[in-house]
Amino acid sequence: MLVIGYVIGIRSERRLCQDVHLNLAYRWFCRLGLDDKVPDHSTFSRYRHGKFRESGLLRQIFEATVERCLKEDLISGEGFAVDASLIPTDANKSRSLAAAGWSPDVARATGNRAAREYLETLDDAAFGAASESQPKFVAKSDPAAQWTRAEESRPYFAYAPNYLVDTKCSVIMDVEGTRAIRQAEVGASQTMLDRTEQRFGICPEWLAADTAYGSSENLGWLVKKRGIIPFIPVIDKTGRTDGTW
User: Fold this and answer.
1) Residue 16: exposure state from Cβ atoms within 10 A (0-12, 13-18, ≥19)
2) Transposase InsH N-terminal domain: from which residue to which, for each copy (predicted)?
3) Which residues, in sequence order, are bridge partners of residue 206?
């Protein structure tokens, strides 16, 4: 059913269940008979936050797909590109707290699943330890989400899915979720490069990315530690007036 949702572009799992219930072609694809009951939409959430996460099944399926692409010669391994996008959360701005009024104790008092996961990632380089700077607002219902206006629109709470892509046929080699903040995205790019080499034995000759990845630390890591040629614009701070470079 999820494959149908991804291919057809049905983002709502409730809507997906309704469409599978009514569409005979969808039922056939899912091997559901006319009298078979369609799973409730809540089943996806329970499995996603339970069995799928604990077993690592989604990662196994993803890597099996990449392996198939390798066998079909869809991946060259010569050059990669890396970038991040934004996934808005359902967190409500009106129920958030200003950073000054936030502390881990608030999350402990909340006690929901998102708060527990936030507490578990306080020292994670992709989340709590990504930056010492605090966001302007923190959502009590989803404190790990980042308050951002990176797309020059109205600010909102979001996460950043990071993608490492082989440029031959645009095959996604790895994915890593982080806070929607530059430091976390840069760290995710390094994690994905390391993991791709460990898992598939592939290290690209060059890497393309935008200016967000153009810090001296990241460029030095790519060239000196990994031997990767960066096609990345350097972050220009010459226009600063606060005495820093």
Assistant:
1) buried
2) 1-49
3) 79, 229
CA end-to-end span of the chain: 52
What lies within 8 Å, CB to CB, of 95 at 6+ separation is 139, 140, 141
Neighbours of 185 (CB within 10 A): 23
Distance CA 80, CA 65 (A): 17
* Range list of β-strands (E), 110-222: 137-139, 146-148, 156-166, 171-179, 206-208
pLDDT tens across 13-67, in order?
999 999 999 999 999 999 999 999 999 988 887 777 777 766 778 889 899 999 9
- Taking each helix axis from N to C end, the angle separating 182-200 and 57-71, rounded to the nearest 10 degrees, works out to 60
CA distance 245 to 240: 7
- Any idea which residue has 């507490």 for tokens? 119
pLDDT digits (tens, 9 = 90+) for 153-207: 788 888 899 999 999 999 999 999 888 888 889 999 999 999 999 999 999 999 9
- Any idea what DSSP says for residue 92? -
Tracing tokens 């820093």 back to the chain, one arrives at 244
Q: Residue 124 and residue 118: Cα distance in Å, rounded?
A: 10
Q: Using DSSP bridges, classify how beta strands 206-208 and 79-84 pair: parallel, antiparallel or unpaired.
A: parallel
Distance CA 140, CA 118 (A): 10
| DSSP H or E run through 104 | helix 104-110
pLDDT (0 to 100) of residue 226: 95
Rounded to 5 degrees, φ, ψ at 6 are -65, -45
